[in-house]
Structure formats: C-alpha cells, structure tokens
Task: structure prediction
Amino acid sequence: MHDFDPAQIEPGWHAWISYLVDKAPSEDPVIRYQRRPWEDRDAKTIPNYTLTRGAYKPYCTVKSKIAMWEPYAVERK
Result:
C-alpha cells in the first residue's frame, strides 16, 4: 500500500530534508527543480533495488584466496 522510495525525492527537496539548505525549493528559485530541455518528459524514476532480488550482484572471476574450512569427524572403532 505505502511503498515509499527515497530515490523518488527531487534533489532540491533532498537537500532541504537533509538540512543542507535552509529554504525549501518552493521558496528558493535557485534550487527549484526545472525539467531540462534534454530530459525525457515521461521519465520514470528508477527504483532502489537494495535488499531485493533485483539488487546488483558483482560477478567475480577471480579464484578465492581463502578456502572455507569443512570439519570432518573420524569414525570411531
């Protein structure tokens, strides 16, 4: 129902929420967000996939330097 994603916050509002600036973007024309001419008009925000199955997982091609210890028990006689 309520799926809030911090990646959807515009940069000016993020600066205000993080106490980087004193005035909100609605009050300060310098940090007010304006769509640039080269930006896509129907652009959708990219969701933050952290801690999900869609998160980036690097692919390592290097052999591990550390071998995992596998304990074994000797059978009793």
Notes: The chain has one domain: 1-77. DSSP finds one helix and no strands in the chain. Residues 1-77 form one domain.
